[in-house]
Protein backbone atom coordinates (compact mmCIF):
# COMPACT_ATOMS: atom_id res chain seq x y z
CA UNK A 1 0.00 0.00 0.00
CA UNK A 2 1.41 3.37 -0.94
CA UNK A 3 1.88 5.62 2.04
CA UNK A 4 0.44 9.03 1.50
CA UNK A 5 2.86 11.80 2.48
CA UNK A 6 0.28 14.52 2.18
CA UNK A 7 -0.27 16.36 5.44
CA UNK A 8 -3.95 16.68 6.14
CA UNK A 9 -5.48 19.84 7.46
CA UNK A 10 -6.77 19.51 11.01
CA UNK A 11 -10.38 18.38 10.92
CA UNK A 12 -11.44 20.71 13.63
CA UNK A 13 -10.19 24.15 14.62
CA UNK A 14 -10.72 23.34 18.25
CA UNK A 15 -7.76 21.89 20.15
CA UNK A 16 -8.48 20.16 23.45
CA UNK A 17 -6.78 22.11 26.27
CA UNK A 18 -4.52 19.22 27.29
CA UNK A 19 -2.94 19.20 23.80
CA UNK A 20 -2.18 22.91 23.70
CA UNK A 21 1.58 23.45 23.54
CA UNK A 22 1.60 26.45 25.79
CA UNK A 23 -0.51 28.10 28.43
CA UNK A 24 -2.46 31.30 28.14
CA UNK A 25 0.46 33.69 28.46
CA UNK A 26 2.48 33.42 25.26
CA UNK A 27 0.00 34.47 22.61
CA UNK A 28 1.49 35.08 19.19
CA UNK A 29 4.84 36.31 20.43
CA UNK A 30 6.92 33.72 18.58
CA UNK A 31 5.13 34.44 15.32
CA UNK A 32 5.77 38.17 15.64
CA UNK A 33 9.41 37.48 16.54
CA UNK A 34 9.76 35.34 13.40
CA UNK A 35 8.21 38.05 11.25
CA UNK A 36 10.29 40.78 12.88
CA UNK A 37 13.53 38.91 12.05
CA UNK A 38 12.58 39.02 8.37
CA UNK A 39 11.29 42.60 8.20
CA UNK A 40 14.20 44.03 10.22
CA UNK A 41 16.64 41.97 8.11
CA UNK A 42 15.50 43.60 4.87
CA UNK A 43 15.81 47.13 6.34
CA UNK A 44 19.18 46.34 7.97
CA UNK A 45 20.74 45.39 4.64
CA UNK A 46 20.21 48.99 3.45
CA UNK A 47 21.18 50.65 6.76
CA UNK A 48 24.34 48.62 7.40
CA UNK A 49 25.62 48.56 3.81
CA UNK A 50 25.10 52.36 3.70
CA UNK A 51 26.92 52.77 7.04
CA UNK A 52 29.88 50.68 5.90
CA UNK A 53 30.08 52.40 2.52
CA UNK A 54 30.10 55.93 3.95
CA UNK A 55 32.51 55.11 6.79
CA UNK A 56 34.95 52.77 5.03
CA UNK A 57 34.84 53.39 1.26
CA UNK A 58 34.22 57.10 0.66
CA UNK A 59 37.06 59.65 0.75
CA UNK A 60 39.91 58.54 3.00
CA UNK A 61 37.91 55.60 4.40
CA UNK A 62 38.86 54.54 7.94
CA UNK A 63 41.57 57.19 8.14
CA UNK A 64 38.92 59.92 8.23
CA UNK A 65 37.19 58.60 11.36
CA UNK A 66 37.72 60.74 14.46
CA UNK A 67 35.67 62.98 16.73
CA UNK A 68 35.30 65.62 14.03
CA UNK A 69 33.97 63.01 11.57
CA UNK A 70 31.28 61.82 13.99
CA UNK A 71 30.40 65.44 14.88
CA UNK A 72 30.00 66.24 11.21
CA UNK A 73 27.66 63.28 10.64
CA UNK A 74 25.47 63.76 13.71
CA UNK A 75 25.05 67.48 13.00
CA UNK A 76 22.71 66.20 10.29
CA UNK A 77 19.33 64.83 11.46
CA UNK A 78 19.43 62.45 8.49
CA UNK A 79 22.37 60.51 9.97
CA UNK A 80 20.93 60.76 13.49
CA UNK A 81 17.76 58.99 12.35
CA UNK A 82 19.77 56.55 10.24
CA UNK A 83 21.96 55.54 13.18
CA UNK A 84 19.03 55.42 15.59
CA UNK A 85 17.09 53.04 13.33
CA UNK A 86 20.21 50.94 12.79
CA UNK A 87 20.89 50.78 16.54
CA UNK A 88 17.39 49.68 17.50
CA UNK A 89 16.78 47.26 14.64
CA UNK A 90 20.22 45.61 14.82
CA UNK A 91 20.07 45.28 18.62
CA UNK A 92 16.53 43.87 18.71
CA UNK A 93 17.27 41.55 15.77
CA UNK A 94 20.55 40.38 17.32
CA UNK A 95 19.03 39.97 20.79
CA UNK A 96 16.17 37.90 19.46
CA UNK A 97 18.60 35.82 17.41
CA UNK A 98 20.81 35.10 20.43
CA UNK A 99 17.67 34.31 22.49
CA UNK A 100 16.81 31.61 19.96
CA UNK A 101 20.32 30.20 20.20
CA UNK A 102 20.21 30.14 24.03
CA UNK A 103 16.86 28.32 23.87
CA UNK A 104 18.43 25.78 21.50
CA UNK A 105 21.54 24.93 23.48
CA UNK A 106 20.96 25.70 27.18
CA UNK A 107 18.91 22.74 28.33
CA UNK A 108 18.78 23.36 32.07
CA UNK A 109 16.04 25.77 33.12
CA UNK A 110 18.36 27.64 35.47
CA UNK A 111 21.15 28.12 32.92
CA UNK A 112 18.68 29.24 30.30
CA UNK A 113 17.06 31.81 32.58
CA UNK A 114 20.42 33.17 33.74
CA UNK A 115 21.81 33.52 30.22
CA UNK A 116 18.66 35.24 28.98
CA UNK A 117 18.60 37.64 31.92
CA UNK A 118 22.22 38.64 31.20
CA UNK A 119 21.36 39.00 27.50
CA UNK A 120 18.34 41.26 28.11
CA UNK A 121 20.22 43.43 30.61
CA UNK A 122 23.20 43.90 28.28
CA UNK A 123 20.91 44.73 25.34
CA UNK A 124 18.85 47.21 27.32
CA UNK A 125 21.99 49.02 28.54
CA UNK A 126 23.41 49.23 25.01
CA UNK A 127 20.15 50.43 23.42
CA UNK A 128 19.58 53.13 26.07
CA UNK A 129 23.21 54.26 26.02
CA UNK A 130 23.39 54.35 22.20
CA UNK A 131 20.14 56.35 22.00
CA UNK A 132 21.31 58.88 24.61
CA UNK A 133 24.63 59.29 22.83
CA UNK A 134 22.94 60.18 19.53
CA UNK A 135 20.61 62.75 21.13
CA UNK A 136 22.78 64.35 23.82
CA UNK A 137 25.87 64.57 21.63
CA UNK A 138 27.57 68.01 21.61
CA UNK A 139 29.82 68.40 18.56
CA UNK A 140 31.51 71.52 20.00
CA UNK A 141 32.15 70.84 23.72
CA UNK A 142 33.49 73.92 25.56
CA UNK A 143 37.16 73.77 26.43
CA UNK A 144 38.20 71.17 23.86
CA UNK A 145 41.11 71.90 21.51
CA UNK A 146 39.67 73.48 18.34
CA UNK A 147 41.67 71.26 15.97
CA UNK A 148 39.85 68.15 17.28
CA UNK A 149 36.39 69.55 16.51
CA UNK A 150 34.34 69.67 13.30
CA UNK A 151 35.15 72.74 11.20
CA UNK A 152 31.74 74.38 11.78
CA UNK A 153 32.52 74.88 15.52
CA UNK A 154 34.90 77.74 14.70
CA UNK A 155 32.25 79.68 12.79
CA UNK B 1 23.06 3.96 5.35
CA UNK B 2 21.65 6.98 7.03
CA UNK B 3 17.93 6.93 7.64
CA UNK B 4 17.72 10.68 7.12
CA UNK B 5 15.08 11.39 4.50
CA UNK B 6 16.59 12.89 1.39
CA UNK B 7 15.92 16.49 0.56
CA UNK B 8 15.35 18.00 3.97
CA UNK B 9 16.42 21.60 4.13
CA UNK B 10 18.48 21.55 7.29
CA UNK B 11 20.26 18.16 7.68
CA UNK B 12 23.59 17.91 5.87
CA UNK B 13 24.72 19.58 2.65
CA UNK B 14 24.00 23.18 1.67
CA UNK B 15 21.04 23.75 3.96
CA UNK B 16 22.90 22.80 7.13
CA UNK B 17 26.20 24.51 6.36
CA UNK B 18 24.54 27.77 5.42
CA UNK B 19 22.56 27.57 8.68
CA UNK B 20 25.76 27.03 10.70
CA UNK B 21 27.40 29.94 8.89
CA UNK B 22 24.37 32.16 9.49
CA UNK B 23 24.36 31.35 13.20
CA UNK B 24 28.10 31.88 13.72
CA UNK B 25 28.17 35.18 11.81
CA UNK B 26 25.02 36.42 13.61
CA UNK B 27 26.54 35.88 17.06
CA UNK B 28 29.89 37.39 16.02
CA UNK B 29 28.21 40.54 14.68
CA UNK B 30 26.11 40.83 17.83
CA UNK B 31 29.18 40.84 20.10
CA UNK B 32 30.94 43.28 17.81
CA UNK B 33 27.92 45.60 18.02
CA UNK B 34 27.93 45.62 21.85
CA UNK B 35 31.55 46.79 21.85
CA UNK B 36 30.98 49.14 18.90
CA UNK B 37 28.22 51.11 20.67
CA UNK B 38 30.33 51.30 23.83
CA UNK B 39 33.36 52.73 22.06
CA UNK B 40 31.23 55.15 20.03
CA UNK B 41 29.80 56.36 23.37
CA UNK B 42 33.24 57.79 24.14
CA UNK B 43 32.27 60.83 22.03
CA UNK B 44 30.24 61.83 25.12
CA UNK B 45 33.32 61.60 27.33
CA UNK B 46 35.63 63.89 25.36
CA UNK B 47 37.08 64.33 21.86
CA UNK B 48 40.45 63.15 23.20
CA UNK B 49 39.05 59.96 24.70
CA UNK B 50 37.29 59.02 21.44
CA UNK B 51 40.27 59.86 19.24
CA UNK B 52 42.68 57.99 21.51
CA UNK B 53 40.66 54.77 21.28
CA UNK B 54 40.00 55.10 17.55
CA UNK B 55 43.73 55.69 16.98
CA UNK B 56 44.48 52.26 18.48
CA UNK B 57 42.24 50.74 15.75
CA UNK B 58 44.19 52.32 12.90
CA UNK B 59 46.72 49.57 12.22
CA UNK B 60 47.03 46.67 9.77
CA UNK B 61 45.91 44.06 12.30
CA UNK B 62 42.63 45.86 12.98
CA UNK B 63 42.19 46.44 9.25
CA UNK B 64 42.21 42.65 8.83
CA UNK B 65 39.68 42.23 11.67
CA UNK B 66 37.46 44.85 10.02
CA UNK B 67 37.73 42.93 6.76
CA UNK B 68 36.64 39.77 8.62
CA UNK B 69 33.69 41.60 10.16
CA UNK B 70 32.57 42.92 6.78
CA UNK B 71 32.96 39.45 5.26
CA UNK B 72 30.70 38.07 8.03
CA UNK B 73 28.09 40.84 7.65
CA UNK B 74 27.94 40.48 3.85
CA UNK B 75 27.44 36.71 4.11
CA UNK B 76 24.80 37.05 6.86
CA UNK B 77 22.95 39.74 4.90
CA UNK B 78 22.78 37.85 1.58
CA UNK B 79 22.07 34.51 3.24
CA UNK B 80 19.37 36.23 5.35
CA UNK B 81 17.70 37.41 2.15
CA UNK B 82 17.94 33.82 0.89
CA UNK B 83 16.20 32.56 4.05
CA UNK B 84 13.46 35.16 3.52
CA UNK B 85 13.00 34.01 -0.08
CA UNK B 86 12.80 30.37 1.04
CA UNK B 87 9.99 31.37 3.43
CA UNK B 88 7.99 33.73 1.25
CA UNK B 89 8.69 32.83 -2.40
CA UNK B 90 6.68 29.96 -3.80
CA UNK B 91 9.68 28.42 -5.57
CA UNK B 92 12.08 29.32 -2.73
CA UNK B 93 12.41 25.91 -1.05
CA UNK B 94 13.01 24.19 -4.39
CA UNK B 95 15.74 26.66 -5.32
CA UNK B 96 17.41 26.98 -1.91
CA UNK B 97 20.67 25.29 -2.94
CA UNK B 98 20.93 27.32 -6.15
CA UNK B 99 20.26 30.46 -4.15
CA UNK B 100 23.14 29.58 -1.82
CA UNK B 101 25.48 29.64 -4.82
CA UNK B 102 23.94 33.00 -5.66
CA UNK B 103 24.80 34.15 -2.12
CA UNK B 104 28.40 32.95 -2.52
CA UNK B 105 28.65 34.63 -5.94
CA UNK B 106 27.31 37.97 -4.68
CA UNK B 107 29.60 37.72 -1.66
CA UNK B 108 32.65 37.44 -3.95
CA UNK B 109 31.40 40.29 -6.16
CA UNK B 110 31.07 42.60 -3.13
CA UNK B 111 34.14 41.43 -1.20
CA UNK B 112 36.75 41.72 -3.97
CA UNK B 113 36.33 45.47 -4.63
CA UNK B 114 35.79 46.07 -0.90
CA UNK B 115 39.04 44.32 0.06
CA UNK B 116 41.04 46.09 -2.64
CA UNK B 117 39.79 49.50 -1.48
CA UNK B 118 39.87 48.88 2.28
CA UNK B 119 43.27 47.19 2.39
CA UNK B 120 44.83 49.76 0.03
CA UNK B 121 43.59 52.53 2.32
CA UNK B 122 44.72 50.71 5.45
CA UNK B 123 48.17 49.64 4.24
CA UNK B 124 49.19 52.76 2.37
CA UNK B 125 49.38 55.33 5.15
CA UNK B 126 46.70 57.98 4.95
CA UNK B 127 47.81 60.02 7.93
C1 LIG C 1 34.52 48.31 10.62
C2 LIG C 1 33.33 48.69 10.36
C3 LIG C 1 32.65 49.87 11.04
C4 LIG C 1 33.14 51.13 11.29
C5 LIG C 1 34.52 51.68 10.95
C6 LIG C 1 32.08 51.87 11.95
C7 LIG C 1 32.20 53.19 12.38
C8 LIG C 1 31.22 53.90 13.06
C9 LIG C 1 31.30 55.29 13.42
C10 LIG C 1 32.47 56.23 13.07
C11 LIG C 1 30.16 55.62 14.09
C12 LIG C 1 29.78 57.01 14.62
C13 LIG C 1 28.57 57.62 13.92
C14 LIG C 1 28.51 57.43 12.43
O1 LIG C 1 29.56 57.44 11.75
O2 LIG C 1 27.39 57.22 11.92
C15 LIG C 1 29.34 54.42 14.16
C16 LIG C 1 28.12 54.33 14.78
C17 LIG C 1 27.31 53.21 14.74
N1 LIG C 1 27.56 52.02 14.09
FE1 LIG C 1 29.26 51.55 13.10
N2 LIG C 1 30.97 51.06 12.10
C18 LIG C 1 31.29 49.83 11.55
C19 LIG C 1 30.45 48.73 11.48
C20 LIG C 1 29.17 48.67 11.99
C21 LIG C 1 28.29 47.52 11.90
C22 LIG C 1 28.65 46.20 11.20
C23 LIG C 1 27.11 47.86 12.53
C24 LIG C 1 25.85 47.05 12.71
C25 LIG C 1 25.81 45.83 13.09
C26 LIG C 1 27.28 49.21 13.05
C27 LIG C 1 26.34 49.90 13.78
C28 LIG C 1 26.49 51.17 14.30
C29 LIG C 1 25.49 51.83 15.14
C30 LIG C 1 24.16 51.24 15.61
C31 LIG C 1 26.01 53.13 15.43
C32 LIG C 1 25.36 54.20 16.32
C33 LIG C 1 25.92 54.06 17.72
C34 LIG C 1 25.25 54.92 18.77
O3 LIG C 1 24.01 55.05 18.76
O4 LIG C 1 25.96 55.41 19.66
N3 LIG C 1 28.53 49.66 12.69
N4 LIG C 1 30.01 53.37 13.52
C1 LIG D 1 22.33 42.79 7.27
C2 LIG D 1 21.07 42.45 7.30
C3 LIG D 1 20.55 41.22 8.01
C4 LIG D 1 19.69 40.30 7.46
C5 LIG D 1 19.09 40.30 6.06
C6 LIG D 1 19.45 39.30 8.47
C7 LIG D 1 18.57 38.24 8.33
C8 LIG D 1 18.31 37.30 9.27
C9 LIG D 1 17.24 36.32 9.23
C10 LIG D 1 16.21 36.20 8.09
C11 LIG D 1 17.32 35.56 10.34
C12 LIG D 1 16.39 34.41 10.74
C13 LIG D 1 16.97 33.10 10.38
C14 LIG D 1 16.04 31.94 10.73
O1 LIG D 1 14.95 32.17 11.32
O2 LIG D 1 16.40 30.81 10.41
C15 LIG D 1 18.46 36.03 11.11
C16 LIG D 1 18.92 35.47 12.28
C17 LIG D 1 19.88 36.02 13.09
N1 LIG D 1 20.54 37.23 12.89
FE1 LIG D 1 20.38 38.39 11.26
N2 LIG D 1 20.18 39.60 9.61
C18 LIG D 1 20.84 40.78 9.38
C19 LIG D 1 21.67 41.44 10.29
C20 LIG D 1 22.01 40.99 11.55
C21 LIG D 1 22.79 41.72 12.56
C22 LIG D 1 23.32 43.14 12.39
C23 LIG D 1 22.94 40.89 13.64
C24 LIG D 1 23.65 41.15 14.97
C25 LIG D 1 23.49 42.25 15.67
C26 LIG D 1 22.26 39.64 13.34
C27 LIG D 1 22.19 38.54 14.17
C28 LIG D 1 21.41 37.43 13.96
C29 LIG D 1 21.33 36.29 14.86
C30 LIG D 1 22.14 36.11 16.15
C31 LIG D 1 20.38 35.40 14.31
C32 LIG D 1 19.93 34.03 14.87
C33 LIG D 1 20.60 32.93 14.10
C34 LIG D 1 20.03 31.55 14.38
O3 LIG D 1 18.97 31.42 15.04
O4 LIG D 1 20.65 30.59 13.93
N3 LIG D 1 21.71 39.72 12.06
N4 LIG D 1 19.05 37.10 10.44
Automatic annotation (TrEMBL), chain A:
SUPFAM superfamilies according to UniProt: Fumarate reductase respiratory complex transmembrane subunits
Organism (species): Arthrobacter hankyongi
Listed name of the protein: Succinate dehydrogenase hydrophobic membrane anchor subunit
Main location: membrane
Keyword Iron: yes
UniProt keyword terms in alphabetical order: Heme, Iron, Membrane, Metal-binding, Transmembrane, Transmembrane helix
Location relative to the cell: Membrane
Pfam families, A to Z: Sdh_cyt
Keyword Iron: yes
Transmembrane feature ranges: 31-58, 78-98, 118-137
Automatic annotation (TrEMBL), chain B:
Domain of life of the native organism: Bacteria
Annotated TM spans: 20-43, 63-85, 97-116
Gene3D superfamilies: Fumarate reductase/succinate dehydrogenase, transmembrane subunit
Pfam family, any one: Sdh_cyt
Keyword tRNA-binding: no
Compartments, record wording: Membrane
UniProt keyword list: Heme, Iron, Membrane, Metal-binding, Transmembrane, Transmembrane helix
Cofactor dependence: heme
Similarity comment: Belongs to the cytochrome b560 family.
Designated name of the protein: Succinate dehydrogenase, cytochrome b556 subunit
Organism: Arthrobacter hankyongi
